[in-house]
Design goal:
Structural class: alpha+beta
Keywords: Signal
Order of helices and strands: HHHEEHEEHEE
Number of helices: 5
InterPro entries: Ysc84_actin-binding
Shape: globular
Pfam families: Ysc84 (PF04366)
Largest sheet: 6 strands, mixed
Protein name: YSC84-related protein
Length: 190
Amino acid sequence: MSRDNTKLSRRAFTTAGLASLGVTAACGNGIGNTNNVKIDARVNTTLNQMYNRYPGTRDLAEKSAGMLVIPLVTEAGFIFGGAYGRGALRINGATVDYYAAIKGNAGLQIGAQQYAHVLFFMTDAALARFRRSSGWTAGADLEYVVKDEGNALTADTNTLTAPVIAAVFGQAGLRIGATLEGSKYTRIIP
């Protein structure tokens, strides 16, 4: 093996090790237990915080066909990164399923952050597509009403007609700009 290949192998090994640290940090997000009672309690707390801080989200909740509430997502990365969180799908105020949110990414990044998010499924069709999928992925077409910097609720006529609306709030950490694009949601059994 030439000297250049040795440097490349060491660099690749170091990068892979740092990436695994980021993913491991993302998995240790404080939820700690898939117990459905604990997840439901955290979902209730998260919804209360969201409704108190952004009162307009109550109206969205009432108009939605269902909501996926992920109380805590931990995202960390250094070149490669990942995020993980668990939550509950609520329809008419009752939990019907539990989900995990997982995200992986690569690029110029460093740091860690934690945040909560709620997906409002505004149509029965959007909710049905989500529930039928074996792993639904959030795309760039997701509309945001509350995003990172703690902005007040901003919803216009275009936002309110979107099939899926996201509220991302409660950010803490060293990374800026939480986004849900590329997050994959998979049903879990607590």
